[in-house]
Amino acid sequence: MSTQSTLDDTSTAAGDGDAPGRPRRRLRSPGVPHASGTTGGLVAKLVLMAVVNAFGVFAILAAWNEGSYGILAAMVALLVAADWVYFSRRTLPLKYVLPGLAFLLVFQVYVVAYTGWVAFTNYGDGHNSTKEHAIEALLVQNERRVEGSATYPITVLERDGELGFAVVDEDGDVRVGTAEEPLAPVDGATLDGDAVTAVPGAELLDRRQVLERQDEVTTLRVPFSDDPEDGSIRTQDARTGYVSTSTLEYDAEADTMTDVTTGTVYSPSDDGWFVSPGGERLNVGWRVAVGFDNFSTAFGDSRYAGPFLKVLAWTFAFAILSVVTTFLLGLFLAITFNDTRLGGRRIYRTLLIFPYAIPGFLAALLWSGMLNRSFGFVNQVLLGGADVPWLTDPWLAKLSVLLVNLWLGFPYMFLICTGALQSLPGDVMEAAKVDGAGRWRTWRSVTLPLLLVATTPLLISSFAFNFNNFTLIYMLTNGGPRFADASVPLGHTDILISMVYSVSGLDGTAAKNYGLASALSIVIFAIVATISAITFKRTKQFEEIS
Amino acid sequence: MATTSAAPRVRPSAARTGQPRMSPRRWFSELGWRHLVGVVAVVFAMFPIVYVVSAALSEGGTLTGSNRLFGEVSGSNFSALGDSLFWTWLGNTLQIAIATGVGTVLMGAAAAYAFSRFRFRGRRAGLTALLVIQMFPQMLAFVAIFLLLIGLGNVMPVLGLNSKLALIAVYLGGALGVNTFLMYGFFNTVPRELDEAAKLDGATHAQIYWTIILRLVTPILAVVALLSFISTFGEFIIARLVLQSERNWTVAVGLYGWVSSLLEANWGLFAAGAVISALPVLLLFLFLQKYIVGGLTAGSVKG
Predict the structure, then answer these.
(1) Which residue from A3, A376, A525 is facing B189, i.e. has the nearest CB?
(2) According to the model, what pLDDT value does residue A16 have?
(3) In sequence order, what are the residues at sequence separation of 6 or more whose Cβ sits closer than 8 angstroms to the Cβ of residue A327?
(4) pLDDT grade for A4, boundaries at 50, 70 and 90
């Protein structure tokens, strides 16, 4: 095909390394204007760059406000790169690559690297943030009403969409605060006895409004001052507030937490908890690097290792069998319809493409209904009221998954095999015939090898696709039926990617464990990349790309 | 070119009239069995589709009630869709899929042009890097994507969780990896002499790109746009994580919600929704199947 010859032309012209750049650039005569050759183009470019710069500066300022210095640095880098690339004359190729590259770097390269980092931490429920945040959360969570502490008359109010309290303090001054802002004196508030009647810039809630938002009011805590040790104001009846302070005390010098009621001292452990000498730990931890712990959990911890190996085996079986079954059926049909004398080929072909054109999630959901044990079309109509547990028996569920994937996938293989068959060189077949090869021999020794050369890259990508065919599994069986030992929410048809989804806890069925989920992602990546690399190398794909 | 050579050509009349009449037995061994296989395959391929159309048109909305094919035909399921958020979801999905499709084509084509036409330092390494990166599907990094969007959302809510724009941006992150090669191969088939001639006439690289190259590679642009549209249309895992409020859901997330918990009750509604959301993709597909077949095979078939 012409693709091939042009590819070869360029690679010979290119030679090796970076040499080819120069001669080619010299081809352009020095007088030819550069990118700004047309005024229309120049205006468009300037407008676009103005928009990009405006957005960039806005994002940088917002990141500065939030104190997100990682995002700030990335935005500055991207903005500088964009301006340099589009206003310099020496960055021609980058002008075309940069937009895609920026998205690629942020949303693919970065997230992959981030996945790699999270895989080595204990990020997840209980370890959601930094140590600083964990200390803050612990102090807040362990607040108790101090015995005999002062009570204050309070009024519930709403300021800037947030609930807050107006408190009359010992001196009779009105102080106002919200969950975010500690109590601070306000000017211009009016009092009627002990009751606050008006606060500038805020709306007081009347009795009915307080009742409507009772839950919000009783859980609201307004810090007494900037110092968390001072505790906060809470209320039960929306009339009087009392001070509660934390039963924990953080000693920054010694880096320990002390429970003031019991006197127990908790010190930080290596795995991100405050632990007492007796082995008790406080319930909020922080993120720490845990090395290869997540990987050894996956392979060694009995709760995960058993299911993990089963899932791994099924993932391979599923991906390989999916490719093999769809390819064989597709190839068989392609051969069947590859006879030019056959009438109605076009109709057959169009009808056979239908499953491929149905979005995969719809097909999986549709089949999950049709295979329903009690009411499904397959049992009720096709099998005349049989009671086959298609999706609830471990082996039948696996078979169902493969059958549904066969239905979804064979048209694709049919299409590529048809294409490949038609582009096979006729002269080679002729030669085989002349040499006395029979139909079968020609097929086995000439057609099939050529066909495989043509389709192998697609078979590999099909393998990689099915290896991570989350939608099908999740929609059809949701991984079920569950393994009998229900220590982890996994089942017989779970593949690695759906296991990652369950383990991550993002679907809300289990505790979040981003660290372990990311470690499993890395394992999947390693497997798929290794297989692809080996096979691509074998098919010499690497040599042909440049 | 790749597209035309791979597209099926039917030459019925010449082939058929040239043949002498066959005996029934020979007819069956050479052609008849092919029809038999064809009919069986078509039944296998089509019966779920016939079933879902029938279920969508059935009066009741339950799974059992849908088992009598075309027992009664009514539009009640379709009109019931109006009371749900289905049309909002479909609108969201179309917005997201079209924006992603267009963005993917623009970015992918520009990158493919650079790799195909310019010789620069790091070109070879760049191509190899793309090949390696595309082996790591974005879907695998969904945890990191989720965490990244939480961070971005604190700075710019429009790029945070529950934003359609953020979801589009995430999808565009995969624009280069998957498609550059497909396009790169196709761009290489456009003769370089055209550029050279235009250059001699004083055209800038931008003019060459927009007015010459892009017009000549339209088929591959259509294929990439369509493939991107279709895969975005059916993407579930990232959409589910990013789009949190029901109004922002895509069809994939919404329809899943209907049948995952209450399979019985919402079946008719699901079937109607499925038929409607499958239609645009199906029509596009049938309309452009010639190009798709070409596009699928262009990257792989060596002549």
Answers:
(1) A3
(2) 38
(3) A413, A417, A455, A459, A462
(4) very low
Instruction: Mark yes or no for CB contact A454/B302 under 8 Å.
Output: yes
The phi, psi pair for A96, rounded to 5°, reads -90, -25
Closest CA to B43 of A417, A382, A53, A86: A382
Q: Is the dihedral of CA A494, A498, A500, A501 positive or negative?
A: negative
Is B303 in contact with A474 (Cβ distance < 8 A)? no
Q: Do A532 and B1 touch (CB under 8 A)?
A: no
A265-268, strands of its sheet edge to edge: A248-251, A256-259, A265-268, A274-275
**Tokens read off for B173:** 């992150």
CB A292 within 8 A of CB A120: yes
The most distant pair of C-alpha atoms in chain B lies apart, rounded to whole Å, by 78
CA angle A140, A142, A148 (to 5 degrees): 105
pLDDT tens digit sequence for B45-86 = 999 999 999 988 887 777 777 777 777 788 888 888 888 899
**ipTM attached to this prediction:** 0.84
Name the one residue in this structure whose structure tokens are 């550069």: A34
Indicate the residue of A101, A111, A542 with minimum beta-carbon distance to B144.
Answer: A111
Q: Where are the alpha helices (DSSP H) in A185-301?
A: 207-212, 214-219, 293-300
pLDDT-based confidence at residue A13 (cuts at 50, 70, 90): very low
Average pLDDT, chain A: 81
Question: Cα separations (Å) of A308 from A312, A352, A475, B18?
Answer: 6, 37, 21, 62
pLDDT at A507 over 70: yes
- Contacts of residue B56, defined as CB under 8 A and 6 or more positions apart, other chains included, come to B77, B78, B268, B271, B272, B274, B275
Q: pLDDT of A392-414, one tens digit each?
A: 899 999 999 999 999 999 998 99
> A455 Cβ partners below 8 Å, 6+ apart?
A327, A416, A417, A420, B300
Report H helices in A67-129. Answer: 69-87, 92-104, 111-118
Q: Enter the DSSP assignment of A237.
A: S
CA distance B96 to A98: 22
Angstrom distance (rounded) from CA B138 to CA B238: 9
Residue A121: beta bridge partners?
Answer: A289
pTM greater than the 0.95 cutoff: no
Opening angle at CA B236, ends B235 and B239, nearest 5: 95
End-to-end Cα spacing for chain B: 11
Q: What is the CA radius of gyration of chain B?
A: 24
Two structure tokens written together for A181: 């802002």
What is the full DSSP assignment across A487-500? TSS-BTT--HHHHH
The Cα-based distances of B251 to B239, B240, B247, B275 in angstroms read 10, 10, 11, 12
* pLDDT tier at A367, thresholds 50, 70, 90: very high
Extract the tokens encoding A33: 């204007």
CB B61 within 8 Å of CB B265 = yes
What local confidence, expressed as pLDDT, does residue B276 receive? 92
Name, of A129-143, A201-215, A531-545, B141-155, the range with top average pLDDT. Answer: B141-155
Mutation site for B-interface testing, chosen from A358, A367, A391, A407 by largest number of B Cβ within 10 Å: A358
How far from chain centre, in Å, is Cα B289?
A: 11
* A247 pLDDT above the threshold of 90: no
Give the mutation candidate from A36, A97, A475, A528 for the B interface (greatest B CB count, under 10 A): A97
SS3 B217: coil
Which of A472, A469, A468 is CA-nearest to residue A527? Answer: A468
Spatial separation of the C-alpha atoms in residues A90 and A94, rounded to whole Å = 9
Among the listed residues B10, B25, B223, the one whose alpha carbon sits nearest the alpha carbon of residue B105 = B223
Q: How many CA atoms lie within 13 A of A514 on its CB side?
A: 25
Report the SS3 class of residue A173: coil
